[in-house]
Amino acid sequence: MPVNSKVSAAPPLAPTSPTGPRATKVSIIGGLVGVFIELYDNAVYGFVAGTLAVVFFPSDAPTTSVLLTFVAFAIPFFFRPVGAAVAGSWGDRIGRKRVLLVLITLMSLSTALVGALPSYGAAGVWAPIGLVLLRFVQGFAMGGEPGNGNSFLAEHAGEGRRGRVVSYANAATFIAMLLGTLFAAVLTATLSTSSMEAWGWRLPFLLALPLGVVGLVVRRLSDESPEFVEAEEEGEVTRSPLKEAFTSPEILRAMGLTIVLPLLNSSGYFVLFIYMPSYMKNEMHFSAVEGLLVTAIMLAVGIFAVLFAGRLSDRVGRKKMLSTSAFGMVVIGFPCYWLLTRGSFATAVVGAVLMSVCFAGTNGVMQVTLAELFPTRVRTVAYGVGYNLGTAIFGGAAPLLVASLIAATGSIWIPAIYLVLTSAVAGFTALRIRETAFEPLKR
């Protein structure tokens, strides 16, 4: 019998708790909030990377400052697997909701504290040290969020609508990045360079604190995952989820897929939305505002594209969506990148939008696909560890890798090459997965 049929037949909750559709909506919104804050932080960091380079890593060589800033950007991604292992184990042992409350608190506080750090000129070497330490905390929180947050959403969604519900989280990431982009664009357009370096860069980070408070309240009102509650009632919660994940050949194979399958998800996000604004300004000689506006348009289109992709995957399956979008990026990657290099705002928008739509086909379906690969008892830890390992290797290091290769080779085509190669690997991997869209979640 499908798991969700048991959940629907369970006795109603106490009158003090929200019930029925309202409870599901509140829980889904609660699951989305942390994803929003996580991506908002990353987006803000990438969009003000040039300013952060001056504030925290002053150097006579501007390229060195930018590279050091991207090193600090990459640090939390290599700490994410630790957060995934610890917070994922907690999520499989004590429930998704409790862990999500801890994660949103850590993420919002650490992000806001970045905005309160002194500059290198005021505190010397302690300024970049403080930045790196806070990035470690953010890395831990970011590592625990995907496995817990997306599992929470998938488990609340019910049969036949998991793709649509989890795609809300993907749309939330685009909205978060769009907010960060517009905020950075407004600050860049209205503040002088000296004002931006003195205090303007702090504002987007400080905004994370009130966002976190709202998110914490909403998550407290959420219900625990019905899948976890049922597993707990039936005595199926394992005491050592991490150990079970690494000793089961079947789960290990699925974890391998979570590393490779999201290649386009990782490389596309960081190349298109984090690295590209700086690249357009420094290498393609767009103004800072023009580069941010191109990104904003790309994100606005992506919001609707990921929602459409998630809904469509409930009808045609995850496998078709993932493989089609990945191979689509292989086909359009170089031509669209060529449009970006023409120096025209209009052609840059066309190239960026086409890549955004193709990327959304993967982004809108990836997280629900990964959640469906694992059984409830180890879902958050196995999903989280595998996904974050891949993100650390192919995503977090992407801006630094691309910047270094461009500096070494002088080729402006490095971002396109990286994007197309990773898309090809992701596409062939998608062809090998089993279709899971039309089955109940594994127990």
UniProtKB/TrEMBL annotation:
What Pfam families is this protein classified in? MFS_1 (PF07690)
State the signal peptide span: none
Spans through the membrane: 66-87, 99-117, 123-144, 165-187, 199-218, 251-276, 288-309, 321-340, 346-366, 387-406, 412-433
Q: Where in the cell is it found?
A: Cell membrane
Matching PROSITE patterns:
MFS, SUGAR_TRANSPORT_1, SUGAR_TRANSPORT_2
Q: Any keyword Transmembrane helix?
A: yes
Q: What GO CC annotations are associated with the protein?
A: plasma membrane
Q: Which GO terms describe its molecular function?
A: symporter activity
* Similarity-based family: Belongs to the major facilitator superfamily. Metabolite:H+ Symporter (MHS) family (TC 2.A.1.6) family.
Topology class, membrane: Multi-pass membrane protein
Q: For bias kind Low complexity, which ranges apply?
A: 8-21
Q: Any idea what this protein is called?
A: Major facilitator superfamily (MFS) profile domain-containing protein
Keywords associated with the record? Cell membrane, Membrane, Symport, Transmembrane, Transmembrane helix, Transport
Q: Which organism is it from?
A: Streptomyces malaysiensis
Q: Where does the Major facilitator superfamily (MFS) profile domain start and stop, copy by copy?
A: 27-434
Q: What is its main location?
A: membrane
Q: Where is this region: Disordered?
A: 1-21
